[in-house]
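Workshop exercise sheet. Pairs work together: one partner reads the sequence aloud, the other fills in the structure field after running the prediction. Swap roles for the next sheet.
Pair: D.N. / O.F.
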Amino acid sequence: MYRRDTTYFPADEERRIKLIIFDMDGVLFDSEPYHARAEKMMLSRCGIHEELGEQAGKSHADIWTPLIERYQLKISQPELERQQNALTMQLMRADAVPLHEGLKEVLSLLQANGIQAAVASSTSSDMVEEMLSYYGIRQMFCCVKTGSNVKRRKPYPDIYQAVLRECGVEGRNALAVEDTDTGMRAAVSAGIPCLGYRNPTSGNQKLDMGCTVIEKMMEIPAFLQEI
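Structure field:
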């Protein structure tokens, strides 16, 4: 079902979409449950028996930095992030987690219609590049920005602003696809309208900042035809 907002998407050439920016975790594939499993394994390794609650949408830095201080851990946040990312990839490969249905078809359609595609993920560069290459879709994105490329991660707009600069596109001519409130706030703060991607594995989603909520990737081309 589409919930269209003509304030964000008027049907004139000035506001035509030239770039679609995808979040990675929970949008390109169902990685959030695997991040959660890897996080629990890492907590156990560190001797921490604390229920952290909902973490979807948070960066590793936001999760681990307070824990390092609270428990006086003798390991750095970047190293904890590296180990957790490695565990996440190991778990996903073991379960042969697929790309979201229709994603490759959508990316091909965007290319065929001259619409750029990019990735904006708070995850570190090594993890993002490894995952995109593993799934064979890295070449389909003209720009990939990660938490390693900016000082402030989502919900700050820095990562989306970096994508817009590199792609030479204004926010009004771009569209973000996010599955968390944190990501949506980052996109909207950068002046980019946002599609909320409903994914049951992404935790307690708050998608009310999205001007449209979708449930399948193949809704994106149909939506673009309507605006």
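Discussion prompt: The beta strands are 19-22, 116-121, 143-146, 174-178, 194-197, 212-214. What would you look at next?
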